[in-house]
Amino acid sequence: MEGLFSLLLLLLLSFVAVFFHLIRILFNSPVDFSMDWNLFLSWIPLIIAFFADNFTKRFGKIPVVLILLSVVWLAFFPNAPYMITDLAHLTVDYERDLTWHDVIMLFFYAEVSLFNGLVSLYWIHRSWRRIFNRVTSNSFLLASLPLAGFGVYLGRVRRMNSWDIIHDPQLILKNLLESAMDRTALVFSMEIGMLLGILYLVLWVIVRFRIRYNRKS
Fold first, then answer.
1. Which residue ranges does UniProt annotate as crossing the membrane (predicted)?
2. Plot region of 64 (φ>0 → left; ψ -120 to 50 → alpha; else → beta)
3. Torsion 59-63-65-66 (CA) sign
4. Residue 199: CB partners within 8 Å, gap ≥ 6?
5. Cβ distance 83 to 35 under 8 Å?
6. Is the per-residue pLDDT at 1 higher than 60?
């Protein structure tokens, strides 16, 4: 299946991130297993996008199925860039060995999680392009970026998570309405969206250049 190599590579990187965490545990220091949980959550949109990409390639235009998959993907997509905000937990002590280990460890977790999100965005965008026209698919792409940032805000500041959509939709609605009027939430959403957009653009250019180069070869 297309994309299987990418999944295996990202899985290997995830194991490397966990290895950094195991080293931290060997120091007999307090650890936060929420990092591993957050990394796992970043895999959910990746798996959904992987399925959507292969489904649309094999079965063609079934827009209803893709829309349903896209909604579920969008609900979990913010979990990927969310780990960037875990860098806020760093405590700086330049003479402490664990400070530098924690910097590398948290950065690696955030990096792998972000990779998962960007690859999932590429796959779901490619699925949209197969089913919808260019304007519609690119509109979905542009809308998903600040929405992802808004989801990160809800998770970090409002302490919400994707599962609340199922077991506490009223609380989700309450936080949505309150956050929509919060300037910090809007600025945060746009900046995370801009960060994702720039990184995705780099990924897109690299992938498209590789495809064109292989065709010429």
1. 7-27, 33-52, 64-84, 104-123, 135-154, 185-207
2. alpha
3. positive
4. 114, 118
5. yes
6. no
